[in-house]
Design a protein that fits this description.
The chain is mostly beta strands. The chain contains one helix and eight strands, in the order E-E-E-E-H-E-E-E-E. It has one domain: Tumour Suppressor Smad4, CATH 2.60.200. It starts with a strand and ends with a strand.
Length: 129
């Protein structure tokens, strides 16, 4: 079973930035924006804790901000091209299958290594298979 993703969930492209080399002198900097955060939206009527659930079309073409996959030749992710896995086999909203926290995405960025995608559902009320 997986947790249902909503507009309050944190979904990223899966690229993880390199940790900084050693502690920085002085006070700690403010936390950086979430790397590779995917902008999600949904108009589904099914809601969890007041937030609409995500379906495949909620993610298709969504923009991705601050992907750390930079350099030469890697290309940062800027949009979602497809949902390859993680759709519920049983739960639907508006005739569409909802997506779960075990989702697999394809993006327009180059992928030097398979990214580790660990979305945070940010809710524990609704799960599905």
């Amino acid at each position: 079973m997986g947790k249902v993703l909503t507009t309050a969930s944190t979904v990223t492209c899966g690229h993880v930035p390199e940790p900084p080399a050693g502690p920085a002198p002085g006070p700690p900097p403010p936390p950086p924006p979430v790397p590779g955060l995917i902008a999600t939206s949904s108009t589904q009527k099914l809601k969890v804790l007041g937030e609409p659930v995500l379906v495949k079309s909620s993610l298709m073409g969504a923009t991705i901000a601050n992907c750390p996959n930079t350099g030469s030749p890697p290309t940062p992710c800027t949009s979602v091209l497809g949902v390859s896995s993680g759709e519920s086999r049983k739960l639907r909203s508006g005739g569409f299958t909802v997506v779960l926290d075990r989702i697999g995405l394809t993006t327009n960025g180059s992928v030097p290594l398979p990214p580790v995608l660990t979305p945070a559902a940010n809710q524990s009320k609704l799960s599905s298979e």
